[in-house]
Structures are given as structure tokens and as C-alpha cells.
Design a protein that fits this description.
This protein is of the alpha/beta class and about 150 residues long. It has 5 helices and 8 strands, in the order E-H-E-E-E-H-E-H-E-E-E-H-H. The strands form 2 sheets. The chain has a 4-stranded mixed sheet with strand order 1-4-3-2, covered by helices on one side. It has a 4-stranded mixed sheet with strand order 5-8-7-6. A hairpin with a 2-residue loop joins strand 6 and strand 7 (about 110-115).
């Protein structure tokens, strides 16, 4: 089993499409009209065009507002994206006008930062050391006993 699709609820799909493609650098994969105003709109990493899709899902369900408002008010990111260098990505995005709620923070071997995606969500970016990527139970490195 693998993750094929995940989603973030967005207030405005056109605004989200601009932010996630033009600012963050994702690539649009599917854009299919659903009714009069909604779309099946997914983006992917340019590095993994056949990888996991992120659905920019309309936030129309009544439960969404309370859910997202609570996460934002508590400072909890809805999703996390991996980057090679959090500090460099923080600088790049900040220079593009992205508002960060948490500047780069080193927590042991992991560095994170959190930004507002302008569509109602907080998103975390994270970098972990290369040796940590294979140290997950069930991974090839764990199965072979490989170490950093």
C-alpha cells in the first residue's frame, strides 16, 4: 500500500493554484471541472511527476471551517512538505512575500519552518539529515541493518 493522494482544503481554488504552482513550485497534474465552480485540481512535485498528488480541495463542507480555524489558532500545520534546505527555502519564499508563522527552527537533526498558504492553512516545511530518511521501520535500510 502507498499514499497516492492527499488533500488540503482551500478557500479559493484559483488562488490556491497560483500559490501552489507559481510560489511553491508544484506542477499542476489534473484540472477537471466539477459542476459550476469546483474542480478536481491536483498538483505534484516537479521532481516526482508520478508521485503523490496534492488535491486542492474546495473548503465547502460545513466542518472544514471549524477544523481549519482550530488548527490555525493553535499553530498546527495541516501538512508537511520536505525540502532539501529549510533555511534556503524560507529565504526564497519570504522574498516572494510568503508569511511565516515559525521561522526556521532546529530540533535535533530536523529543521522546520511554518508558513501561511494564503488559502486557510498552515504548512510546515522540513529537512532531515540524509541518514534519517532510511531509518523508518520497514524501510530497506532498517531491513538490511544499514546505519548512517
Amino acid at each position: 500500500m502507498k499514499i497516492h493522494l492527499t488533500s488540503v482544503f482551500v478557500d479559493d481554488q484559483a488562488k490556491a493554484e497560483h500559490f501552489y504552482t507559481e510560489i511553491l513550485g508544484f506542477v499542476k497534474k489534473y484540472d477537471v471541472p466539477l459542476g459550476e465552480k469546483d474542480r478536481w485540481l491536483t498538483v505534484v512535485s516537479p521532481d516526482e511527476p508520478a508521485g503523490t498528488e496534492l488535491l486542492l480541495e474546495p473548503a465547502g463542507h460545513p466542518a472544514v471551517k471549524a477544523y481549519r480555524d482550530t488548527l490555525v489558532n493553535d499553530g498546527i500545520p495541516l501538512a508537511q512538505f520536505a525540502v532539501d534546505d529549510v533555511k534556503a527555502e524560507y529565504e526564497r519564499l519570504r522574498d516572494l512575500g510568503v508569511r511565516f508563522t515559525q521561522e526556521p527552527l532546529e530540533m535535533g537533526p530536523v529543521t522546520t519552518a511554518v508558513f501561511d498558504d494564503t488559502c486557510g492553512n498552515l504548512i510546515q516545511i522540513a529537512t532531515q539529515p540524509k541518514w534519517a530518511a532510511g531509518r523508518v521501520r520497514g524501510s530497506a535500510a532498517a531491513a538490511t541493518g544499514a546505519s548512517p
